[in-house]
Amino acid sequence: MSETFEPVIIGFTCNWCSYRAADLAGTARVKYAPNVRLIRMMCSGRLDPTFVMKALSGGADGVLITGCHPGECHYIEQNYKALRRFILLKRTLTQMGIEPGRIKLVWASAAEGVKLAEEISKMVEEVRALGPLNWNGHDQTFEVFETSKVSELEAA
Amino acid sequence: MSDELNLENAEERIGVYICHCGTNIAGTVDVAEVREWAEKRLKSRGVVLARDYKFMCSSLGQELIEKDITENRLTRVVVAACSPHLHENTFRTACKRAGLNPYLCELVSIREQVSWVHTDKHAATDKAKAVLSGGVERVRHHQPLEPLRVPIHPATLVVGGGIAGIQTALEIADAGRRVYLVEREPSIGGHMSQFDKTFPTLDCSACILTPKMVSAGMHPNITLMTWSEVTKVDGYVGNFAVTIKQKARCVKTDLCTGCGICQEKCPKKVIDEVYEAGLGYRKAVYTPFPQAVPKFPVIDKPNCTYFQKGTCKACEKFCPTNAIDFNQQDELITVEVGNIVLATGYDLFDARRIPHYGYGRLANVFTSLEFERLTNAAGPTNGNIVLRDGKTTPKVVGIVHCVGSRDRNYNNYCSAICCMQSLKFAHLVKERTGATVYNFYIDMRTAAKAYDEFYQRVLEEGTLFVRGRVAEVTDAARLPGEEGKLIIQVEDTLAGKQRRIPVDMVVLSAGLQSRHDSKEVAKLFGISCSADAWFIEKHPKLDPVSTMTDGVFIAGCCTGPKDIPNSVSQGAAAAARVLTYIDRGEITLEPVRASINEMKCSGCRICNNLCPFNAILFHADRMVSEVNAALCQGCGTCVAACPAGAISGTGFSNEQIMSQIEGLLLLNLNGAREKELAYA
Predict the structure, then answer these.
(1) pLDDT one-digit tens code per residue, A104-120
(2) What is the ipTM of this complex?
(3) Quick one: closest CA in B to A115, which residue?
(4) Are B508 and B359 within 8 A, CB to CB?
(5) In CATH terms, is domain B594-649 a member of 3.40.50.300?
(6) Within 13 Å, how many C-alpha atoms sit on residue B352's CB side?
C-alpha cells in the first residue's frame, strides 16, 4: 500500500451540465484521479451549505461544487445563487479554520468533459498538498482565529 | 439518526446488482469483489442480496431483478452500471413490472464515472464500492412516487425555414396537426435556395426545393411567419407559450398580389449580402428571389429612402392594389404549442479570417457560397462562371478544400459537405467553361450513397487533384508565367515537393459553422451548445433529434454540419417524435418538485424571490408560502434556502443527499480509514 496520502473529495454536480460533462469524460475515456465521488443534483442551486459541512465533517478532505457557466443555467439563474452561497460558505469555513483550498467551485458545461477531468485532477493534487482534514479527529475545542489570520488564510 | 428510524429501515430489503457491461466495467473494476463486499459489509444497511451479471440491461438481467423482487420480497433496488441518463428508465421499468414503485430504484454510475476514467484497478474497485454504498444509503430514503402527467398541446412551433424546417413542418402538417413555421428572412428556403445544383445527382436545387416551399406556403395546417423571430419562450413540454416578433413588412399581405412592380420602381439599389452573398443587388423593397414563399415583399427600413429621408414613396405610388403601408409596426404574437423543433441551420465560415488565402483582398478569390451564386442561372451572372470583372471566363480554376475546417487554428471538425461540394464545383467549371481545374484537398471524404461514384466521374473528367493543404494564395509573381495570375503555393504531399500553381480564379470551400447567435438561441429555448456552439443532442447516436429539454427537438445543420439528405432525414425524424407526443395526448414527467410543509413554514418569504419561475405563492392570510407544482421545475434552490427546513424536494431530499454523502464516505481510497457509519 502506498505511503502517500490519498484525499477523498466529494463532488456535487448539476444534472444538466457537469454530470453530463462527467458522462462525456467517461464516454471519451478521459482519465482523472479516482479520489472524487460525485453526487448528482438537479441544479447547483440545490446545494445546501450543510451538505458541504456534512461531507467535510464526515471524512472528506475536500468538496468540489460544479454547475453550469454563468448565464447558461438550465433554471435560468440558479447557479448565481450557488455562487453567492459558495462565497459565504468559503468565508465561514475559513473562520472555522478550514483552508479555503478545500472547497472549490468549477463551472463545466455538458461539453466540457476534458475540463472537468482536469479540474478534478488539479483539485486532488491541491488537497493532497494540504494533507488530511480529519475534522472529527480534530481537537474538540475549536481554535478561534484572530481576524488577521482569517484574512491571511483567505488571501492564500 | 433516531433509533425509531433505524428499526423501520431494518425492514427494508435492498437488492444490489452490479453490471459487468461486458468488459467495460469488469475490465477495470473487480466486480466479484464489489459484490462480496456489498453482501458482507452492507448487510447491516439492509442489503439482502447482491448479484453481478454480464449485462444488467439485457432482458435476462432485467428478469433477474424482477424475479428477486417477487421471490425475495425486495423493497428497494440499487443497480451499479452506467449513467442514469442511459438506463435509469430501463431499470425503473423493470421494477415497475415486478410491482415495485419505479422510484424505489437507484442507478449508480460505475462505468462513466469509474471504469472508463480510471486505470488503477484497486482504486477503481474501491471507488465502485464507495459509489455503490452511496447509492444504498440514498435508496433507503427514496419515496414511492407517481410521475406527473401533463397534456400535450397539439400545435407545434418550427423555427427555421430551411430544408430541414420545411420537411418537419410538412410532415407534421400532413398528419393533420397545426404548425407555426417561423423564419427570420423574408422567405423560406434557407441555404438550399441559393444553390444551383445539388451533389451527387446534379439535380437542380430550385426544381426540387420550390415545390416543397410552395406546399409549405399553401398548406392549410401551416401558419407561415416569415420576417419573424422568436423572442420569448415560457412554459414546458406540452404547454409552451411562445412570443414571436413579426417585424413590420410595410406591405399589407391581404392586398399584395406579389406582382413585383414595387421592386421594379424602387430607385434604391442595395448590395444583397444574404441571398446573393454580396455578389448582386436587390432593391430596398424586395423579395429575396423570384420563387420566394411567401410572395410578399418587405421594405428594408435602414436602406429605404422614405424611412431615411422622408421622401420617395415610389412603391406606394405605383402599387396597383395600395398594399404598401409605411405605418406598420412590429407586432408581438403569442402562440401556444406543445412541442418546438429548432432547425436554425448554419453560418458559412468567414474566409477573411484566413488572411493568407486572400479573400476580401484579392479580387478573384471567391467563397463557396459566392461561387454557388455565380453558377446559378438566376444569379447575378445568369449562371456564367466569370471573374470579379463580370466578363472574363477563367482558364484555370483552383478549388481549395477544408477552408476553416480540420484546422486547429479555426475549427477542428470536418464540415462534411465541402469535399462533395468542391467536386460539384469542379464538374460545373469543366462543363461550362472547359477550364483546367485543380482541387487542393487533405483527404477525400465521399462516404455516402453515390458520392464516391461522383468522385470517380470528376476524376475521369480530367480534374487535377493535389493532395496538400494550401499554404498561401498570392498575386506576387516570382516566376515567368505568373504575372497577372493568382498563385497557389502548396506542398504536394504525394509528389513530396513544393508547388506554385498559377490560376485565374480561386474558390475557397469554406466550412460550416454554428449560427453567430446560436448560444443566445440555445439559452432562449433552454438547451445546451457544444464547445463549437452546435446544439447538443440528447444522445449523439441513439437520440440525435432530441435535446435534454423535453419538448424541444433539433434537426438539420444546427446540430452540426450535414448534407441535404441528412438534414431532410432529421427534419422528418423530429416530426415523427413530435407526432408521437401529440398522438399520445399526454406526457409523463419526472415528479421532481418542491413542496412546502405549512406547519413548518414561518412565512419569512426568503424562498419567494429565489424562484425564477414564479412558482412560489405567498398566502398573506395564513402567512405561509406554497409551491405551485405545475410551475415548479424542480431545481431545488428553495429547498436549500429554507431556514426552517420546511421545503422538501422529491427525488433529491435532504435525507437522500445527506445519506448519500455518508455512504460515499464509508471507506476511503486505501481502505485503512474505513469507518462505521455514524448510526450503523
Answers:
(1) 999 999 889 999 999 99
(2) 0.89
(3) B531
(4) yes
(5) no
(6) 4
